[in-house]
Design brief:
Blueprint lengths: L1 E6 L7 H10 L2 E5 L4 H11 L5 E3 L11 H10 L5 E8 L8 H17 L8 E7 L2 H11 L1 H4 L1 E5 L5 H9 L3 E4 L1 H4 L2 H9 L5 E3 L13 H19 L3 H15 L6
Helix pairs in contact: 3-4, 4-5, 9-10
Organism: Thermophilibacter provencensis
Pfam families: TatD_DNase
GO molecular function: hydrolase activity, acting on ester bonds; metal ion binding
Length: 253
């Protein structure tokens, strides 16, 4: 099975059809959302698809005030998959930094408090120019210990990468990350049990693409990652599929 550990399924023009196509192609999807409202709408549309793990999220670009975090925290006791959540310190989002930080801290604390050992919550974390701050929050709130945290499109420093490894984080890398020298080096050195593939597709809401686009992007990622690691692509695909399956397992299994 191919694994896409971070996609915006709800941004396709026909999400339910893409989910069905993905199942036919043997694709396992972690479908993130950017607001609690998007999560609720998608859960009603295709919550029963066995190949789709639908995550409840609050993307940092959509954070404005405390009410945004309130809406997500209300959902967290009843969901296992959480994302896209995190921090973005790019200049264009500077005005909301304090609100982002407060929201992410509250979300991570709520996740840690409601993450049972038999089925730990899985978080897909956005950390643009903020890897250190995001790791601080994951560690301080206990989310790094009690949840499974996946750092999406990680672009932090080498020291931050290894801090994430020590905290138990996984790393989802896509074709755009792997097009950079840093991304390929991180793919080369990361422990094999921490590697996941992702697409971050589609690029915008209402996109007309489908599961074939996801497969094509994942194929490019596997090729780049296997080249960086000196591995056979089929062996790497099997390894990543096992890592993806392990996200859904209990810590005791």
């Amino acid at each position: 099975m191919w694994i896409d550990a971070h996609c915006h399924l709800g941004w396709f023009s026909d999400p339910a059809a893409v989910a069905r196509e993905a199942a036919e192609k043997g694709l396992g999807l972690l479908a993130v959302t950017v607001t609690p409202g998007e999560f609720r709408a998608l859960r009603a549309a295709f919550g029963g698809e066995k190949n789709v793990a639908l995550a409840a999220g609050l993307h940092p670009w959509w954070v404005r005030d405390a009410s945004d975090a309130d809406a997500l925290c209300e959902l967290l006791p009843g969901v296992r998959w959480v994302g896209e959540v995190g921090l973005d310190a790019a200049p264009r989002h500077a005005a909301t930094w304090e609100a982002q930080l407060d929201a992410f801290e509250r979300i991570c604390r709520a996740c840690a408090e409601t993450s049972p050992p038999e089925a730990p919550k899985v978080l897909s974390v956005h950390a643009v120019r903020s890897a250190g701050a995001a790791l601080d929050v994951l560690e301080r709130t206990g989310a790094a210990e009690s949840c499974r945290c996946v750092l999406h499109w990680f672009s932090g420093s080498s020291d931050e990468l290894w801090r994430g490894v020590r905290l138990g984080c996984l790393f989802s890398l896509g074709e755009r990350a792997l097009a950079t020298r840093r991304g390929r080096e991180y793919a080369r050195v990361l422990p094999e049990e921490r590697l996941l593939t992702e697409t971050d597709l589609p690029p915008f809401e209402g996109s007309a693409g489908g599961a074939a686009d996801i497969v094509a992007s994942l194929g490019l990622s596997v090729d780049a990652m296997s080249s960086a690691r000196g591995m056979d692509p089929r062996e790497l695909s099997a390894l990543i599929a096992a890592n993806g399956a392990a996200l859904g397992a209990s810590r005791e299994s």
